[in-house]
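Sequence, structure tokens passed on for absentees:
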Amino acid sequence: MDAWRIKVADVRITEGAEDFRIYQQDAAGRADITVGGTWDTEPGGTEHRVWVRLLRETDNVPLEPVGRLWADADTVSPDGTWRHTFRGVPAGGPYRIETHLIWTVAAGGLGGRRGDTVHFLGVGDLWIVAGQSNASGTGHGAADDGPELGVHLLGNGERWRLAAHPLNEPAGTDHPNRDNGAVTSPALRFAKTLRRELGYPIGLVQTARGGSSLVQWHVEEDPQAKLWHNMVHCVHMAGGRVRGMLWYQGCSDGTVPAHYTRYGERFARFVARARQEFGPFVLVSAQISRWTDVVQPPEIHLGWSQIREAQRHVSRLGDAVVVAAMNAPLSDGIHNSASGNVILGERLARAALGAFHGKAIPWQSPNVRDAVRSGDGRTITLNFDDVTSQLVFIGMGVNEFVVEDAAGRADVTEARCDGSRVELKLSRPLEDQARIHAAYGIDPAWTLCDYATNVPALAFYGLAVNGRP
């Protein structure tokens, strides 16, 4: 040790609370915060005690103890360790934990010295960020999306910090989810919007990885699934319970027939296993967008369409919602840009607020309910649920659908919106086994959206057309 440094008896915090940590609140809006560490013996002192207190950072008012400056730690052991739990800390923050070492001096009075402090703690909701690159964040460009106290991150370095881009920072980590190209993610705007509307801190647990397929998250398909085990490790570091999962994934599975044909049931098992591991949580997901800069064989166009169709039905999992991402701007052929991530992050947050927090706000993506042919077979009427105002086409609409029957493809010659319905005129009468797809392929034309919210309708695949030919 350098000669100019000093060594004094002190209280150290070595476990539990750390700067910027967010604790998951319980159903009553409270959490227990446990902290512990070591203490030293003051030369000449006796009857050593460790004092602790929890304060609000904003005004220095103690939450514990009430009516006194300090409280004795729950346990102070002769082996030089101590431990204390602040019980029932209300949702909010930022909070600060302070420590103090107290001893009796030879003359009978008290001596003391301040110990370690932990800053910027919070009690609120924890969200897992999972999936592939559009979750971990690969968006380039300028956007107003800076850090904000009260939105914190358990990063790849296994330390809590103020959440700031890139969330999936690769430096100093051996985690398998590291992305060398990480830039901006929708998760930061998502969390900031939740904090603004709910009034308490949000903590993000970043586990997403670019290019990952579902099997890498699916311990039932691969017992060695690294991203699953990494996620479990990180969530348990954060306390083991979360409010929800933010999920954007499916692009990689859309290129493998064995993966995309069963994506819906595979994803359902993944979510069920995660809920078994972490307890109940809500799921907020995005339907995959587009891939613009490659030429792909027909089976890849089919795969992406089937992935989107499986994602359209995610609500069947219970406490789960999906939003459309199709009109978010890109910064390359497949990744949402920084501004696109702001749009998508707010869209995902509104879904969480409306679906799971009872906020009376428009949040749904229009979702087709059924397709009905007219009496002459030359018209299909699509009926949509979850329309806030009315449906509109930003484009012409005629090239946004694929209609097929036993005779092959029937061209759409006219597309018209009427409230929550879309009417399609066809080039010929439909025959048996008619089905319709919307936003088919990896880079489809798709401009159908809600007029008031500008949120696109969810893409769909293989919807049976009802009614006799």
Remarks:
- The chain has a mean pLDDT of 94.
